[in-house]
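Section 5.1 Outputs to date
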Amino acid sequence: MNTNELTVYQKIRNDIISGELKKDEKITEAKLAKKYDVSRTPIREALKQLELEYFIKNSYIFMPTSEEYRQIFEMRILLETYALRKAAV
């Protein structure tokens, strides 16, 4: 998949992972809309998803410590296990 086929979410996520968007950098819808040449609506949706995935916290790029990663994955294991059990019923 080339970069033109990526969703706005994927582009922002990739830029966070690659370091193009720096740790503790303030994220605004207007700035990202201009950077990715899209309206603010897809940016808003992407930011919601990235916050759920702990890439962004309080409008800043978030890089968890190893302890925070451990806590995040422990919580995900609990939630996903519960969700699978509910789905299997």
